[in-house]
Amino acid sequence: MSVIDIDLAMKHLRAESEDVVDVQSKLDSAESAAQKFLQRRFYADAAALASARAGVPAARLAARTAYQLAVTAAEAVENWDDRCAAFADAEFVFSEALRDCTAVARGIVINKSIVAACLLTLGHLWMSREDTVTGINTSSVIELPHGSRSLLQPDRIQMGV
């Protein structure tokens, strides 16, 4: 479920009530993209942030336990290539779990810039089915700007995806 109120999103798009399911889906996608760009989660208020942060130590412990079990299972694999793949898979899953924990631990209460960025992305998803627009002349292709990134950049933790 999204942090941004669906009614605000509907008003932003000037969408009809029968479009609520489609708008909600695109709003969820816009928020997910923003959180991935920021490399941190955002929450509606300080209480929700505190509650999420409280679960981080247990999530890290669970990730470490699962990693140790996966490494133990990988050590039992006889085929060298399969064993290497099992170790790599265990490392990848562990890394992803720790990245998720870090995103929660470094979470932020949603602010107006994040809301605006998500609504910009939502509007782009609503109006455009592609990242490019072709003109009358098919040889001219224009890439659409991503203004939402400039709104999210100040709250971003690290460079990356």
Based on the model shown, name its key terms.
7 helices; single chain; 161 residues; 4 strands; two-stranded antiparallel sheet
Structure, explained:
- The protein is mainly alpha-helical.
- Helices cover 65% and strands 6% of the residues.
- Helix 2 packs across helix 6 (112-127) and helix 4 runs antiparallel to helix 5.
Write the layout of secondary structure elements.
Elements: H1 6-13, H2 20-38, E1 42-43, H3 46-54, H4 56-75, H5 80-105, E2 108-109, H6 112-127, E3 132-134, E4 141-143, H7 147-152
Helix pairs in contact: 2-6, 4-5
Short summary of the structure?
This protein has about 160 residues and is mainly α. The protein is built from 7 helices and 4 strands. The relative contact order is 0.17.
Order of helices and strands: HHEHHHEHEEH
The overall number of domains is 1
Percentage of residues in helical conformation: 55-70%
Largest sheet: number of strands, sense, barrel closure: 2 strands, parallel
- Please give the count of helices: 7
From the alpha carbons, calculate the radius of gyration and give it in angstroms. 20 Å
- Unreliably modeled segments: none
Strand order, main sheet: write it out. Answer: 1-2
Strand content: 5-15%
